[in-house]
Design a protein that fits this description.
101 residues, mainly alpha, two-stranded antiparallel ribbon, 2 strands
Length: 101
């Protein structure tokens, strides 16, 4: 097909499934993170967990361009502790400079 290991490609911007796996879509990293934290909140509520501290669950965006969403919430909430979920990208692909990427 003319596609070789290491070729740079661009996926379509809309969501699609490839090889029975969720593959790519606009803001999929933020959506997956939002799903994870929503599940944590659901489990806490369903199991009637009482926490000895205030818990804020925030799904922030625009981390790639200066942490815009997280910065606003950090200043507004002023937490003592934050736990962040995000994705990491594979840099072992041929022709990818791991230090740069």
């Amino acid at each position: 097909m003319g596609i070789h290991v290491g070729d740079v490609i661009t996926y379509e911007d809309k969501f699609f499934v490839l090889n029975d796996r969720y593959c790519v879509g606009r803001a999929l990293d933020n959506r997956a993170g939002g799903f994870m934290i929503a599940q944590v909140a659901r489990l806490l509520k369903e199991n009637k967990k009482k926490l000895p501290f205030g818990l804020y669950i925030v799904n922030a965006v625009q981390e790639e361009i200066g942490l815009k969403g997280a910065e606003m919430m950090a200043y507004r909430i002023n937490p003592d502790l934050a736990i962040i979920t995000d994705v990491t990208h594979d840099t072992t692909t041929p022709m990818i400079d791991a230090k740069k990427e």
